[in-house]
Design a protein that fits this description.
Blueprint lengths: L13 H13 L5 E4 L5 E2 L5 E2 L2 E8 L9 E5 L25 E2 L4 E2 L4 E5 L14 E2 L4 E2 L9 H15 L4 E7 L1 H12 L4 E7 L7 H16 L8 H4 L4 H15 L2 H7 L19 H13 L5 H13 L2 H4 L14 E7 L7 H13 L3 E7 L13 H15 L6
Parallel strand pairs: 5-8, 5-11, 6-7, 11-12, 12-13, 13-14
Antiparallel strand pairs: 1-4, 2-3, 4-8, 9-10
Length: 400
């Protein structure tokens, strides 16, 4: 199996982007797998999806023993395009620093899979997808989904691909949540796990930031109660503000000061108005407006809510160790010193839970001032940690 596969949609109007968002959901530039009513996906909410589509990308070759598969789980605003040029933005894949020939996740050695998560907006069933019952986009008629639902959908994909066990599951942030959920739900299918910059639950502070973002989207008159795709609206301003607020949490004060300080943007003096006087203001506005060209507003609501609901200890009787009892999975937990979204203390709580369960776990805290987004950046210690862990874990499977 060899399949290859973020820039703006220049000159797009609001109507163009509405059509674009719906087309993204139904006809992505990725392979897709579809499941019908005879294979419903049961959801944590107690409802079910009778129609499920999963879009995915793969890289490298699956070996004859099917023992070299690595599943990469993407973060909130990312997608399946890990190592190929993104079909919407024309930019390189979001983890090309780590994934590719000769890189830490070496596609000359491993078969890498990444799917767009359930609730997403680039090919997998989400709120912008067509509801077969109505012929219109689901909008808010899509049931609320959880990280557990995302993982069960991914397991369906692996079943379809004929992959019984995974050599490793890796991901950062919301992707790290999925990694932990995989290890808890399917321990017999996960040989090794790399949760990066994540936690076993979403903190109250993180829920609060997500609620600010959701309210920004829903306060935009063009959101139209979630029906913007059928009514010709596009809540661009609200989604852009949500992205701006969230993006601040992905950075650190040190990184912001080093990059922007209090520098003015293309001027020598303040305007004494409300234009983007400071470089940091211009940067955040750019982040917000480019984001709306590649992401669906309702998907943002659904995926942030899925993260908010994530609490592995609560799901396993109030004790995190119960989620990993008798697990044979090998874990490497990675955190960053300047990450205040998922700080080291949250990652260490995962390590303590794994230790209490008797699991095999190593822990690395990487010293960097780049904040939460460090897992997406050029961090040599991250690269060497991942390369070393996979090489060591792979020896018993003949992959070392």
């Amino acid at each position: 199996m060899t399949l290859a596969g973020e820039s703006e949609v220049a000159g797009s109007t609001s109507a163009d982007l509405t059509t674009h968002a719906q087309n993204q959901a139904d006809t992505p530039s990725s392979p897709v797998v579809r499941f019908g009513p005879d294979e419903p996906l049961l959801l944590d909410s107690g409802t079910r999806l009778d129609h499920l589509q999963i879009a995915y990308q793969t890289y490298g070759e699956l070996n004859a023993e099917k023992s070299n598969a690595i599943l990469i789980c993407h973060a909130l605003t990312l997608d399946q395009h890990v190592g190929n040029v993104h079909p919407v933005t024309g930019k390189p894949g979001w983890w090309t620093t780590l994934v590719g020939p000769g890189k830490p996740i070496d596609t000359d050695r491993y078969f890498v899979i990444c799917s767009n998560v359930l609730g997403g907006c680039l090919g997998t069933t989400g709120p912008a997808s067509t509801n077969p019952a109505t012929g219109k986009p689901y909008g808010l008629d899509l049931p609320v989904i959880t990280v557990g639902d995302m993982v069960r959908a991914q397991a369906r994909l692996l079943d379809h691909l004929g992959i019984e066990t995974l050599f490793s599951v890796a991901g950062g942030s919301m992707g790290g949540m999925q990694v932990l959920q995989w290890a808890a739900t399917y321990p017999e299918r996960v040989f090794s796990a790399l949760p990066i910059a994540a936690g076993a639950r979403h903190s109250s502070q993180n829920i609060a930031f997500h609620e600010v973002g959701r309210q920004a989207v829903m306060a935009d008159p063009e959101w139209r109660g979630g029906r913007y795709l059928t009514e010709g609206g596009s809540p661009r301003k609200g989604l852009a503000v949500a992205r701006m607020a969230a993006h601040i949490t992905y950075l650190s004060e040190q990184a912001l000061h080093r990059k922007f300080g209090r520098n003015l943007q293309d001027r020598d003096k303040p305007t004494f108005g409300f234009d983007a006087d400071f470089q940091i203001e211009s940067y955040l506005r750019h982040q917000g407006m480019t984001f709306v060209d590649r992401f669906d507003a309702n998907s943002y609501l659904y995926l942030t809510r899925a993260m908010d609901y994530f609490d592995l200890a609560e799901d396993y009787g109030g004790r995190l160790a119960n989620a990993f009892r008798n697990s044979q999975t090998r874990f490497c937990v990675i955190s960053f010193t300047s990450d205040w979204l998922f700080p080291t203390v949250e990652n260490k709580a995962v390590v303590r839970g794994l230790n209490a369960a008797g699991a095999s776990v190593s822990f690395v805290e990487i010293d960097t001032d780049r904040g939460h987004d460090a897992f997406l950046l050029d961090e040599p210690e991250l690269f060497s940690t991942i390369r070393g862990f996979l090489s060591s874990a792979g020896r018993p499977r003949g992959l070392g």
